[in-house]
């Protein structure tokens, strides 16, 4: 079955950087567009970024554009999100998703 397992979350100071990962299995990763979404405490889900199946196209929410970078390794079935210049409003649980499933998420806290 489809499995999406996020990792790499944690505590980071404002202005700091963090890279989160998503290990995938159970589907043909190289054919799938992939997405990161996040949910802040008490808030709804927010789309963060998406990437085409071959990595040639990437899209970002205005709130993270220029600071976050989505990438993928189709040989390893892995999805990544490099987050730089982090802000307190980036505190959320981050989820990776394909068009049919979402992982359990990895929590990220941006605080001094």
What does this structure look like?
The protein is globular. The strands form two sheets. A six-stranded mixed sheet has the order 2-10-9-4-5-6, with no helix packed on it. A four-stranded antiparallel sheet has the order 1-3-8-7, with no helix packed on it. The chain is 0% helix and 48% strand. The protein starts with a strand and ends with a strand. The model has no long low-confidence stretch (mean pLDDT 97). The protein has strands at 3-7, 11-12, 18-25, 34-39, 45-51, 58-60, 68-73, 78-83, 92-97, 106-110. By secondary structure, the protein is mainly beta. The protein has no helices and ten strands.
The number of helical elements comes to 0
Distance between the ends: 40 Å
Low-confidence stretches: none
The count of strands amounts to: 10
Give the rounded overall mean pLDDT: 97
Strand content: over 45%
H/E topology pattern: EEEEEEEEEE
Write the layout of secondary structure elements.
Blueprint lengths: L2 E5 L3 E2 L5 E8 L8 E6 L5 E7 L6 E3 L7 E6 L4 E6 L8 E6 L8 E5 L2
Parallel strand pairs: 2-10
Antiparallel strand pairs: 1-3, 3-8, 4-5, 4-9, 5-6, 7-8, 9-10
Quick overview:
By secondary structure, this protein is mainly β.
